[in-house]
Amino acid sequence: MLFRDLPDRYMAPEVYRRESYGKSIDVFSFALILHEMFQGGPSNRAETAEQIADKRAYEDSRPPLSSFLYPEPIKMLLKECWHKNPDCRPTFEEIILQLEVIEQDFQNEKAKKACCRCVVL
Q1: Nearest alpha carbon to residue 29 among 54, 59, 53
Q2: What is the C-alpha to C-alpha distance for residues 79 and 63, in angstroms, rounded to an integer?
Q3: Minimal CA–CA distance to 45: which of 83, 98, 1, 101?
Q4: Is the CB of residue 5 less than 8 Å from the CB of residue 48?
Q5: pLDDT digits (tens, 9 = 90+) for 69-105
Q6: How many Cβ atoms sit within 10 Å of the Cβ of residue 103?
Q7: What InterPro entries does this protein map onto (predicted)?
Q8: Is the dihedral of CA 89, 24, 35, 8 positive or negative?
Q9: pTM for this one?
Q10: What share of the chain is helix, strand, coil (3-state, %, to 5)?
């Protein structure tokens, strides 16, 4: 894979199709990077960046979201960020708020599990 091919992998469909676009293209790319953080890299390494961008732009293809790797709130956030209608994607302000809620819920769940453990001496 050539370095010049890499941007296509993270490109929002509307950019690939050469349509007008706004800030939501960064939201789309952010979600792809977040997905790869959970996956440990791109999920479709066998395809070229151009093939991937083409499928995303013309077939609404998105990376798979394994139920084993992704907590449900993260799956929902990724789906919102990948929405085919750019106007339906959240802003980064909304994303940050959602991530803060997800973090707080995780901390609360972690604390709940820690205080409910019984230790046998």
Answers
A1: 53
A2: 10
A3: 1
A4: yes
A5: 788 999 999 999 999 999 999 999 999 999 999 999 8
A6: 11
A7: Kinase-like_dom_sf, Prot_kinase_dom, Ser-Thr/Tyr_kinase_cat_dom, Ser/Thr_Kinases-Pseudokinases
A8: positive
A9: 0.82
A10: 60, 0, 40
**CATH entry 1.10.510.10 includes domain 3-115:** yes
Tokens 């929902």: give the residue: 76
With b for 16 or more beta-carbon neighbours within 10 A and e for fewer, the 45-64 pattern comes to eeeebeebbbebbeeebbbe
CA 94 to chain CA centroid, Å, is: 14
CB-based contacts of 21-26 (< 8 A; 24+ apart in sequence): 21/86, 22/86, 23/91, 24/86, 24/87, 24/89, 25/86, 26/92
- Whether residue 58 contacts residue 76, with contact meaning beta carbons closer than 8 Å, is answered with no
Dihedral sign, CA of 52, 56, 59, 60? positive
Match 């890499």 to its residue by tokens: 6
